[in-house]
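User: quick one, fold this
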Amino acid sequence: MSIKTISTRTVYQNKWSHMREDVIERVGGERGIYGVLDKDPACIVIPLEHTPDGDFLTLVHQFRYTVQGSFYEFPQGGWEMADADPEELARGELREETGLHAARMTEIGRNWIAYGAMRQKHHVWLAEDLSQGETELEPEEEGLTVHRVRVEEFEAMIRDGRVMDNCTLAAWGTYMVWLRATTRSV
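Assistant:
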């Protein structure tokens, strides 16, 4: 099915996003309006440590204004640049939010975020061989805290609602599928 764009107009924009309203025509000829939020590509990082005591993930806990709540999630974000290098972006977000540096970064997938209303690609990265440095939080990240949890605890946090971020859930699902595929091929 194809929808034809008749016209488009900018409704609102700032340095993070561009909201447009498109007049569309469906296959049957019926016209309508479609609102689209355009955002530059972003990344989400799964910081994973394999230790003799088990596997650990690093999460951030931060207040999200849109839902007026604080939740745990993987480090993620964008630089408001359409042409940002995905790996550089992932390394930067990891460092800014957690202070972590990764000796090994692997892109394990790409997802669209909420593509029913928004146009933004999310690059999913696995960060391993981690070392600790200093965080470089932005003003919007004030109050952000960093937490190291066992993988089993993280999965319990998903079940009990402490992790509700769809991007974190999608990244973890992407990782589990990627892990099964790479484990079989070894």
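User: anything notable?
Assistant: The first strand starts at residue 4 and ends at 13.
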